[in-house]
Write a structure and sequence with these properties.
The complex is a heterodimer.
Chain A: H1 3-15, H2 20-43, H3 48-59, H4 62-101, E1 113-115, H5 131-137, H6 145-150, H7 152-161, E2 168-170, E3 179-180, H8 181-185
Antiparallel strand pairs in A: 1-2, 2-3
Chain B: H1 3-6, H2 10-19, E1 23-24, H3 25-35, H4 47-57, E2 60-67, E3 70-77, H5 79-102
Antiparallel strand pairs in B: 1-3, 2-3
Helix pairs in contact in B: 2-5
The chains are: A mainly alpha, B alpha+beta.
Chain lengths: 186, 108
Amino acid sequence: MTVAVDRYISDLSSRLHVGARTRVRIQAEVRDHLDDATAQQIATGTATDVAAEQAVADFGSASDLATQFNVETGTQAMRRAPLIVLAAGVAVFGGFLLAVTTQPHARASTNARPVVRSRSSQPWWRFRLPSWQVHARRPESPPSREAGVSTPITAASYSAARRLPSAHWRSPQPGGRRQSASRSIL
Amino acid sequence: MSSEQLKGHVDPLVLAILEGGPAHGYAIIESLRERSGGVFDLPEGTIYPALHRLEHAGAITSRREVIGGRQRRVYRLSARGRAALGERRTNWSAFSSAIDRALGMSPA
């Protein structure tokens, strides 16, 4: 164990951008190699410190070596990236489906009267909101026109609570305008 | 010969050395120097990224073993590596013949 070898390994390690396991493996291999090279130099009659310095010089620049390892590790990570993205996408979509299918039957306020479109006229992409959104955002009173404008998700939450994917809410005030909940959230 | 000239050829050279039997990193670089008659004077560290790359590709395998009383990582050629080596030899033969002909070193 010499100062030159320790310094080299420390320098190399500080430049590596690899996982902990790979880092330990690289450090061990480099140390083994430098110890062998140093021992061989010593066997030819070279002083220990000089032999270690020579072994380090023959091994090459720590910066260049770290770059090669980093490129190699980065390339491997890039090869795995599409798989990771696919897995994340499947997980998100699965979670969304789970949230939609486990939505409980909730009752909206009695003041609000939804006008329901026929199911055949509803576009496929108008999903109900997940149950946690419905419960978290349900207000004490049904949404008025102003409330619908300021908090569009609230009106949509009522629609979701009634299990009506694209219900339109009629304002409880006389002469109020009809609001489209589905339009508010899209 | 500079390491720049050897770029792209390190992998098959390593595979060819491991074809002769399992070896650790230091032994591989020593063997490479001997086989080339000292012409291939690479920085010794160059061999390790190549070993990691080949192992990740499944061309070689490695495990820690005790050699001379010390723990060393020893590399072995896998079946896939043997096949890859055969392919590289065929490609190299065609490539070097073409270069020889282009340089006028062998009859066309």
